[in-house]
Input
Amino acid sequence: MVEIGGMPILWHIMKTYSYYGYKEFYTALGYKGEVIKDYFVNYLNRSSDITVDLGKSKIDYRNKHSEDWILNLYDTGKDSLTGGRLHRLEKYLGGEDMFMLTYGDGVANVNINELVKFHKSHGKIATVTAVRPPARFGALIIDNKAVIDFREKPQVGEGWINGGYFVFNKDVFKYLNGDLTILEKEPLENLAKDNQLMAFEHNGFWHPMDTVRDRDYLNSLWEQNDPPWKVW
Output
């Protein structure tokens, strides 16, 4: 719920998916999950002009601004780990041939349609979006002690990391076991061993929000009116 440009990062992530036509979300809630519930329950109140008739217990909305999303907000336990939260959603997602999953702490301009197309093309259980991590510090290009180029937080030119933005087939649930399952440990490791994990290589923008420095950086990009993750 940390904000970029006055909107929670979760909203930015959902806007990306909805731009590509995916508008129903299952949100695995844990610690402070009530904050997310309250935000979306009152979303229309926050984003619209309203007239409140206390005598008639009536609210009229004017200049409505909302999203055509369906949000399923489920408590998956305060202490559940990443795989455990997905495991708890099996009752809702287990009947789906395919579903997507991502974290709530990073933004990217991943082309969701291309991601889904790639997943369907290989026939494996899982796809993870591979990204190149951003540098934590600006880069100086030096020649004979003279700075010939200065780049603020460039994308690293080598190496790939897990950027989230997964696509799974329902068989992924066979790799999960209880609340303390860490998705990034045994499940993904075993999927890789079984040759069931493929990488969708994303060379575009991706950035986590792990620190105050990350928050400030993403807000600075938003304030420039052309943030690279804003595909909508």
Summary: The chain is about 30% helix and 30% strand. The longest strand covers residues 24-29. The mean pLDDT is 91.
